[in-house]
Design goal:
alpha+beta; four-stranded mixed sheet; 27% strand
Length: 107
């Protein structure tokens, strides 16, 4: 995953990459132990994606359409809109094809 793609995740999370981000490793909030938001690390691996993601992040939002549009503008690709059992979410792909969901907090 290129550093610029990690920057897209930082923008998606409304955060900034920690100083020293490289192609091999980048983080968000790694050295801020008092931080209330999750801390993220992105580590490059040599293998390409060959099956379903081992980790599938979900982002929850009050306005599903606006958030999906924002994330697509940052480089995500739309995959599917789902509405099982009254829940609504959209599955997107990051620039490397990894799936993640944007979930509406209301049905």
């Amino acid at each position: 995953m290129a550093c610029s793609r990690r920057g897209s995740w930082a923008q998606a999370l409304s955060q900034e990459l920690d100083p020293g981000a490289s192609k091999e490793f980048a983080s968000i909030g790694l050295h801020h132990s008092g931080r209330s938001e999750p801390r993220w690390c992105f580590v490059q691996v040599p293998e390409g994606k060959s099956a379903k993601n081992r980790m599938h992040p979900d982002l929850i939002t009050a306005d599903l359409e606006v958030e999906v549009e924002r994330l697509v503008g940052l480089g995500a690709t739309w995959k599917a809109d789902l509405k099982p059992g009254g829940m609504r979410w959209t599955t997107l792909l990051d620039p490397e094809g990894n799936e993640f969901d944007v979930i509406s907090e209301t049905a």
